[in-house]
Amino acid sequence: MADRIPDKIYFKIGEVAELVGVKSHVLRYWETEFKSLKPVKSRSNQRLYRREDIEQALLIKSLLYQQGFTLSGARQQLKNPPEQPPVNEITPASLDSVIDRLRSLRDGLQADIAGEDG
Q: Does the reported pTM lie above 0.85?
């Protein structure tokens, strides 16, 4: 989803609403409910969203609409995201284990294919 965000510095609320797939008033409401969604305002008081704001709005939409969280549940998820192991914790031993598992799966699939041909 985030890969379909155009390469611009600032976006107007209408553009963001279209990218996220919600109405402008929903984005304005989310700003009041989620402190992490804070677009800057221009001199003319127009909201200007950055890429990070759009990604945050997409995450909020996912939490509320796809994952079924309530507003307070979504706020809690944003405060305490599920822990994921850092990428740098991949060790040669764990990588070898993954490679062995993939080879085993490949060999099993090749055997299945050979059995169907015979």
A: no
Q: What kind and span of H or E run contains 75?
A: helix 71-79
Domain range summary for the chain, segments of one domain joined by +: 2-79, 90-117
**Is CATH 1.20.120.80 what the domain over 2-79 is classified as, yes or no?**
no
Predicted confidence pLDDT, tens digits, the chain (118 residues): 555 788 889 999 999 999 999 999 999 999 999 999 999 999 999 999 999 999 999 999 999 999 999 999 999 999 887 666 565 666 777 778 888 889 999 998 888 888 776 6
- End-to-end C-alpha distance for the chain, whole angstroms: 44
* Residues 6 or more apart in contact with residue 78 via CB below 8 angstroms: 34, 36, 59, 60, 63
Dihedral angle of Cα 74, 75, 80, 84, to the nearest 10 degrees:
40
